[in-house]
Amino acid sequence: LEQVALTTSDGVGLAGIAYLPAGKPGPLGLMLVHGFGGNFYEAYFPYLGQAAARQGLTVLALNMRDHDRGAKTSDFTDNQTDIAAGLDYLRSLGIKKIVLLGQSMGTNRVLYYQAASGDPSIVATVLVSGPGDLFQWNVWQFGKKKAQETVNEALRMEAEGRDRELMLVDLGPLGKALYTPRYLLSLRGPQARSGPYQNIQKVKNPILILQGKADKLIEPDIAERLRQAAKHPKVEVLYEPGADHGFRRQQSLLAERVLAWIKDLDRSDP
Questions:
Q1: Quick one: which of 125, 147, 217, 263 has the most CB atoms within 10 Å?
Q2: What letter does residue 185 receive in the DSSP assignment?
Q3: What is the CA radius of gyration of the chain?
Q4: Distance CA 66, CA 28 (A)
Q5: What φ, ψ does residue 155 adopt, rounded to 5°?
Q6: Are strands 13-19 and 97-103 parallel, antiparallel or unpaired?
Q7: What is the pTM of this model?
């Protein structure tokens, strides 16, 4: 294990951890991207990172700039810069082919990164417990009227030049959080670029989508919606009975599924 401290191209410091193979590393790297309110050591990340390193993969789990549960003041599109910093780190270790894994809202992050950058070093994408469209997630939680009212409040504050002030936002089962209008609108406003169904169409590598049957935080058919939206011919969907949003009791099963899929992919594309 190696503690990692990176600085993005716009000067933001990010913390993470690298899981390094004990012997000679293989040709593949794996980057783990957390979801809303998460961090580099959440859920199954440590288990998966160690399991992958034992199989010769070099793994990086990295905080995004809006990690954990503090006030959210950035823009969703800033995550492109965060992910780029992590990928640069892996490439500095000699890794030329990288698999991007996103957990929960991290799925939206990794899909946007690829849609915006077209990064050719990404050879595969893994999406775990994706929430789908973030405005529609709020509609599912609260109904369209309340979901739109929150967006309208952010738009009013933006129009008044108050887009960097804080507003209290109800996230239903996730509790309440402090957002700036800038942050909220970048996730689910009319000009938001976080839409996974649009961004996944631009992904040019194989995709694995995992969703737990016991996941109460997202709609039960999100994985299938993502599959239908994808344009790449190699898209696989796995539903895991009993798995919750963070695969807390299925860490070993998730690691087994993901690493077997990556191994088969690497074998078929030498």
A1: 125
A2: H
A3: 18
A4: 27
A5: -65, -40
A6: unpaired
A7: 0.97
In tens digits, the chain (270 residues) has pLDDT values of 999 999 999 999 999 999 999 988 889 999 999 999 999 999 899 999 999 999 999 999 999 999 999 999 999 999 999 999 999 999 999 999 999 999 999 999 999 999 999 999 999 999 999 999 999 999 999 999 999 999 999 999 999 999 999 999 999 999 999 999 999 999 999 999 999 999 999 999 999 999 999 999 999 999 999 999 999 999 999 999 999 999 999 999 999 999 999 999 867 664
DSSP β-bridge partners for residue 53 = none
Alpha-carbon dihedral sign for residues 234, 232, 94, 60: negative
Tokens of 213: 């049957």
> What residues does 126 pair with on adjacent strands?
101, 208
Distance between CA atoms of residues 219 and 140, nearest Å: 8
**Packing angle of the helix pair 144-159, 181-188 (nearest 10 deg):** 130
Taking the C-alpha atoms of residue 82 and residue 62, their distance in angstroms, rounded to an integer, is 9
In one-letter notation, the amino acid at residue 210 is L
